[in-house]
Amino acid sequence: MSKANTYPVSARGPMTHDVRDQIVAAATEHFRRYGYEKTTVSDLAKAIGFSKAYIYKFFASKQAIGEMICANCLREIEAEVRAAVDEAERPPEKLRRMFKAIVEASLRLFFQDRNLYEIAAAAATDRWPAARAYEERIQQLLQDILQEGRQTGDFERKTPLDEVTMSIYLVMRPYLNPLLLQHSFDYTDDAPAQLSGLVLRSLSP
Amino acid sequence: MSKANTYPVSARGPMTHDVRDQIVAAATEHFRRYGYEKTTVSDLAKAIGFSKAYIYKFFASKQAIGEMICANCLREIEAEVRAAVDEAERPPEKLRRMFKAIVEASLRLFFQDRNLYEIAAAAATDRWPAARAYEERIQQLLQDILQEGRQTGDFERKTPLDEVTMSIYLVMRPYLNPLLLQHSFDYTDDAPAQLSGLVLRSLSP
Fold it and tell me: Signal peptide: which range, if any (chains A, B) (predicted)?
């Protein structure tokens, strides 16, 4: 889980950075087992063998730890989506894979583990920065695929790119956002194919 | 569960039917004010001046009353959507209006009144018959518009009608279903136009 190492980490140097990672890794395991909402920083400190004061040296609050876990989780989904997109050659197939990978990776990461879902739901409800940054990166990835498809001649070019990006993002959103996804389990088998079919028809030149 | 009694109406005769309506009307007011979840049939009986036993002669449970209120609420949304569709002449405009009316009517009926939302949410979560029937009628309305658009030559005819209907229904679903709609308030201003634009591009012949 600790892919965190790669994001703009604090300038406190590598030692500090390791401790932060260690806390996040231990907290992930702890929240996974006992839930996020009902665990306090004291519980966490006791469980991982650090003092509460020591944890507070690195994280301002439980939410700050939750944000890091959430950021890791979203990075993991994003990496999976990017890998799926990169496997395809042409933009239409990239779009199909993007849709499929979003649904599969989100279902697995948010729902396999009901306790991680709690963190993802809090992130989406309160619009944590990690959740907003993730949405923006997904929109950017989508826009890159659309741009490429316009260049290859696979997609139409009349509609403004921003408008097309946003409307397709809206079609994907119920499967990206854990709060919506929890009410869409009946549709997750068929929706990726049906919706990417519709989206591709809308893009035909 | 006894939706059967009104749609179609029971064979018990008009008197019985009036009392049922009276109970439903009073219950709607009561739930509106005090909430659905925390009101018991006893509370309700006391408030509307009937005995509990008398209410139970007409409704098997609180949920049976809730189902009737929910059915009325969904019928109201549906009537508004149909009226909006009927105002338009051509199928593409009918689709646009359908989308817009769904969002507006659902927002108003489910959320203006937080206490009615509770009933709608229970209906959607537990898939009450009234909610399922509503989904089917909306799908049918959508299919009728698509069929008409194929006849007028406004819409393409290559893709199987069922597939097109289902994929557009999936695009509309986050705005039809109150559980999803509650997480989409940030998008309800722009989504109808953006999504119907996308859908209409996907339908172009």
Answer: none
